[in-house]
């Protein structure tokens, strides 16, 4: 794999990264909280799985297609 030509994790002077990081976190939190009740069961299970992965970084993968219920990363509640 080719090496990056610059260090994109340094946002000093990087207009693209500065624009993406310039958001109101409190406003975004209110937006998310308002949208949570509108999620269906499958969407909510995936949201919860992603949030758990972010809060406890263990290196999870999330795929848009359904996985077999016996799969260990299945975000759906077991029956």
Any key phrases for this structure?
79 residues, mainly alpha, 3 helices, single chain, flat
Notes on the protein architecture:
Helices cover 42% and strands 0% of the residues. By secondary structure, it is an all-alpha fold. It has a domain of 40 residues. The model has no long low-confidence stretch (mean pLDDT 78).
Short description:
It is built from 3 helices and no strands. The chain has 79 residues and is an all-alpha fold.
Helix content: 40-55%
Nearest-integer average pLDDT: 78
Please give the number of β-strands. 0
Gross morphology: flat
- Structural class per helix/strand content? mainly alpha
Q: Kindly estimate the percentage of residues that lie in beta strands according to DSSP.
A: under 5%
Distance between the termini: 43 Å
- Which ranges are low-confidence, i.e. pLDDT below 50, for 5 or more consecutive residues? none
Determine Rg (CA atoms, Å): 17 Å
> Count of DSSP helices?
3
């Amino acid at each position: 794999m080719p090496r990056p030509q610059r260090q994109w994790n340094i946002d000093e002077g990087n207009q693209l990264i500065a624009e993406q990081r310039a958001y109101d976190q409190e406003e975004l939190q209110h937006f998310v909280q308002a949208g949570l009740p509108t999620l269906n069961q499958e969407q909510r299970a995936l949201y919860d799985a992603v949030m758990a992965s972010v809060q406890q970084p263990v290196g999870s993968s999330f795929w848009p297609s359904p996985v077999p219920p016996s799969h260990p990363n299945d975000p759906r509640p077991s029956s």
